[in-house]
Amino acid sequence: MKIKSLLFLFFISRFSVFGQDEVLKKLDSKADFYGDIARQIWANPELGYLETNSSALLQKTLSDAGFKVTAGVAEIPTAFVAEYGSGKPVIGIMAEFDALPGVSQEASPFRKPIVEGGAGHACGHHLFGAASVASGIAVMDWMKENNIKGTLRVYGTPAEEGGGGKVYIARAGLIKDVDVMMHWHPGSQNAAGATSSLANISAKFRFYGEASHAAAAPERGKSALDAVEAMNFMVNLMREHVPMETRMHYVITRGGEAPNVVPAFAESYQYVRHPNALVVQQIFERMVKTAEAAALGTQTRMEYEVINGVYNLLPNETLAKIMHKNLEAIGGVTYSPEEKKFAEDIIKTYPAGVKSTPEDAAKIAPFIVSETGGGGSTDVGDISWLVPTVGLNTATWVPGTSAHTWQAVAAGGMSIGQKGMMVAAKTLTLTAMDIFKDPSVTGKALEELNKRRGDDFVYEALVGDRKAPLDYRK
After folding, report:
1. Alpha carbon distance 3, 471 (integer Å)
2. What is the enclosing helix (H) or strand (E) of 96?
3. Residues 73, 144: Cα–Cα separation, whole Å
4. Where would a tag sit more exposed on the chain, N or C end, judged by fewer CB atoms within 10 A?
5. Neighbours of 373 (CB within 10 A)
6. How high is the pLDDT of residue 5?
7. Low-confidence residues of the chain, pLDDT below 70?
8. CA of 284: how far to CAs of 261, 381, 418, in Å?
């Protein structure tokens, strides 16, 4: 009896040493290590499909920790899959690392570009990638120490910002055996509800005309810029006659070379979004017709290239409840006096009417369920229609900060960003542990997925059969 008691106590003590508390302590002890990885990526922002150094750093970190890393998957040089273990369940954690053009910024509460017009991590993907890697390593160590069966993968997913890297990873069949996919995103609040996003199609419309001297022989020219402007005018007229949830926006990427030369080539880069992917397709077809009409009216030639197309995010309440529980257990972000001063200075730069306080970073948003997408779009949407998917946001930015702003870059480059990143890493880790300990959750999550997407759903990528647009940021 005494021997059995000793064996029981040994088992209990061993499990507690390598249980939840120890996992979280290990993550805390490596916060600066992962923070340094995030800052290296932040200091060297790389645009979509060009994230050579960022991807290599994350791959090396995973490989050094014991993952088997396969690089260049889905015919994308910066995409990778890192794997540990075998068998079921299979849990994937997604990692992003691409930056945005034109938002270079120091880690300062005042507008100070590092490079005028340069790239910057205004969506916090440097934190996204580092936290996902941190979580993957923490879960792997826990699996090793406790002899947990199953497969853990970290997916390196490039070019989320308009390049749709996850679409090609999904289309290549790299997630077909996955039971649960997890992700997170930097933000200005802590939330883990079952919510959606906007479906999106983007394309570059190219017009070809004939150059001529704009003063001496204007009658001999056919202006490609006129075609772009005509298309954009008609697209703007469409806004009155599309569903109110629709979002359309564009930039003119090429408008000619000189005012005294009739532009022989011009290009407009267009986005259309809506909570429903089918509606997005219908509106995009109307957008193509405006381009055709613009070409006809200006006697130019038009061609277009679909750059990206993503589904709306399909929420999974089964998984979201688990993640929300873990986020509440971890808690939000508490600022030091120096961080609070930084936050107060950032808040002063907001437009009138934006109400927030530094203390809001410590709050956890109530759990909500909503299939109506709002805000932005994400290629996680495609994943969520194929595999039960769950995610969260954490306060890596000062409360009230909008994504894609210099304020987001600033907070993401200092300790506020790191603190929010570690909240995400811990929450992802506890959620993965919960699922490995109770794999029956995966069946319930799949049942919910099948119910939401319908029995007749067949996945067809909105980008069609095109290959990844590896040059879309060049």
Report:
1. 67
2. none
3. 26
4. N
5. 26
6. 46
7. 1-17
8. 32, 18, 39
| Cα distance between residue 8 and residue 40, in whole Å | 46
How far, in Å, CA of 107 to CA of 411, rounded?
6
The DSSP secondary structure of 344-409, one letter per residue, reads HHHHTTSPTT----GGGGG-BPPP-B--S--S---THHHHHTTS-EEEEEEE-S-TTPPTTSHHHH
- The angle that helices 31-43 and 125-146 make with each other, rounded to 10 degrees, is 150
Tell me which residue of 109, 160, 121 sits closest to 39, measured CA to CA. Answer: 121
With 0.90 as the threshold, say if the pTM is over it: yes
Residue 123, SS3 per DSSP: coil
Structure tokens, 231 = 């298309």
Neighbours of 217 (CB within 10 A): 10
β strands within 275-363, DSSP E:
301-310
pLDDT of 174: 98
**What was the pLDDT predicted at 447?**
98
Q: Which residue segments constitute the domains of the chain, with CATH numbers given? A: 28-196+316-453 (3.40.630.10), 199-310 (3.30.70.360)
Helix (H) or strand (E) holding 14: helix 2-17
Q: How many angstroms separate the CA atoms of 217 and 261, rounded?
A: 10
> Which pLDDT belongs to residue 47?
98
pLDDT in tens, 178-187: 999 999 999 9
| pLDDT the model gives residue 231 | 98
- For 55, 228, 269, the CA distances from 289, given in Å and listed in that order, are 39, 13, 15
Peptide bond into 89 cis (omega under 30): yes
The distance in angstroms from the start CA to the end CA of the chain is 72
CB neighbours of residue 54 within 10 Å: 29
The H helix count followed by the E strand count for the chain is 14, 10
Query: Residue 372: what pLDDT?
Result: 85
User: According to the model, what pLDDT value does residue 15 have?
Assistant: 41
- Kindly provide the b/e burial profile for residues 396-419, where b requires at least 16 CB atoms within 10 angstroms of the residue's own CB: bbbbbbebebbbbbbbbbbbbbbb
